[in-house]
Amino acid sequence: MNRVVITGQGTINALGRNVPDTLTAMSNGVCGIGSLKFDNADRLNIQIGGQIKGYAAQDHFNRSEISLYDPFTQFAVIAAQEAITQSGLNFSEEELADHTGVVLGTAGGGLQTQDQNYRAVYEAGKNRVHPFVVPRLMNNAAASHISMIHGLRGPGFTVASACASSNHAMGQAYHMIRSGMTQVMLTGGSESMLCFGGIKAWEGLRVMSPDGCRPFCMTRNGMVQGEGAAVFVFEEYNHAKARGADILAEVIGFAMTSDADDIVTPNKRGAASAISRALRDAGVNADDLGYINAHGTATTVNDRTECAAIREALGAAADKVMVSSTKAMHGHLIGGTGGVELLAVIAALKDGMIAPTINHRTPDPDCDLDVVPNTARQAKVKVAISNAFAFGGLNAVLALKTP
Amino acid sequence: MSVEDKIIAIVAEQAFLEPKDVKPTATLEELGIDSMTLVECIFAIEETFDVQVPFNANDPEASQFDISTIQTIVHAVEGLIAAQKA
């Protein structure tokens, strides 16, 4: 089996327009969540989110690109460009481009395009829509445009598993290089659900917080959505080594499980077995694990179930591991969240920067792990995992180590 | 139909029970209403009475809406209707 390393990373999210700005914000415990600004936001009960402030498509794309790119595609394209630039890979080499693919995660895809066009036909009573509604809203649009822009002719597709989409996508990319199917993969996820219909649908479930995201804190009262993307360059180890690439981290394991239980309520057994199997796949022990980027949505059921699952999977080692949820800073990017959260995992391994769980006021006895409250920490971490536990009971955990 | 009758009808439908089997003193747990069914009941109450129910599934006890029994729900909804009219 081939070894898989990460040689590039890119992002745009509520904390920053690129990786350095995002990591600076994470290390300073900045909260990117604020008032939502879009049409009819005043009709929402939930009026906060991790929106990318001051974002304007025309600052990044020309008119014909914008007519084809829903915001979820725009975010993915911006993130992919940063990741490719950092990797130093040159896709004008035919052989390399033939063996490089794109696998991205998203839950809502071109939801803003749907929202706008439903308004046009149902609310405004128009009988005509823009010719590119379908190519703009389709879930694979972001992956396809990255492939087209950079001429990547290897495998390309999009994974949808709600809040675990990014982790499932990165797991596929990892397996493809590991098995020898491809040499390089662009992978991660993207989401742009911050529009009236997107938030209104979530309101219905009664799990959203009206005033902030406070994971593992006794005062938590629900999740807060975010938007954006993160894309990584996964590369076969010898390929990266031979060209003298700067290796950010190594992907060493991946596991997926299903709760087979409830469509929205998570289950400890499914989450715990995903964690255990990821460690086993990576060939490491619970004692080796230094950091967990938690799913940590700040809903009562997630946080308690996740903490119990970590205890079940790690046993006594659970008391030594640092566990943080960065969602309190960037919000829950749904299908894109695992991407942005992997940035925190890589920062922990590469720079020893443990991103904090901000907004933590009162400890919850049911979440009695070291949740790195409020302030970032410097610590040496050799192995870290990233948890994602989706609606539908689909769990995906990635394990990484220092290069 | 009184507010109580309407709420009993909503809860009975969600719990797959006959309205006569839903006693005002019954708790949701006794009626077999789980958290997702409760969210559906709240939605039906909002649609029926055109009110906004302050309910957060993360912490039902902290919501200013007492869901202990059918009776407490009826009182809370009557309060919301009165506030709506005021």
Description:
The complex is a heterodimer of chains A (403) and B (86). Chain A is α/β, with parallel strands linked by helices and 403 residues long. Chain A has two domains: 239 residues, Thiolase/Chalcone synthase (Peroxisomal Thiolase, Chain A, domain 1); 148 residues, Peroxisomal Thiolase, Chain A, domain 1, CATH 3.40.47. In chain A, 35% of the residues lie in helices and 20% in strands. In chain A, the strands form three sheets. Chain A has a ten-stranded mixed beta sheet with strand order 5-4-6-7-1-8-14-13-9-10, sandwiched between helices. Chain A has a two-stranded antiparallel sheet with strand order 2-3. The two termini of chain A are 17 Å apart. The model of chain A has no long low-confidence stretch (mean pLDDT 97). Chain B has 86 residues and is mainly alpha-helical. Chain B has a single domain, classed as ACP-like (Non-ribosomal Peptide Synthetase Peptidyl Carrier Protein, Chain A). Chain B contains three helices and no strands. The radius of gyration of chain B is 12 Å and the shape is globular.
Task: Describe the SSE topology.
The complex is a heterodimer of chains A (403) and B (86).
Chain A: E1 4-13, H1 19-27, E2 34-35, E3 48-49, H2 63-68, H3 71-87, H4 94-98, E4 100-105, H5 111-123, H6 133-137, H7 141-150, E5 156-159, H8 165-178, E6 184-191, H9 196-203, E7 228-236, H10 237-242, E8 249-258, H11 268-282, E9 289-293, H12 300-314, E10 322-324, H13 327-330, H14 337-351, E11 353-354, E12 377-378, E13 383-390, E14 394-401
Parallel strand pairs in A: 4-5, 4-6, 9-10, 9-13
Antiparallel strand pairs in A: 1-7, 1-8, 2-3, 6-7, 8-14, 11-12, 13-14
Chain B: H1 3-15, H2 35-49, H3 70-85
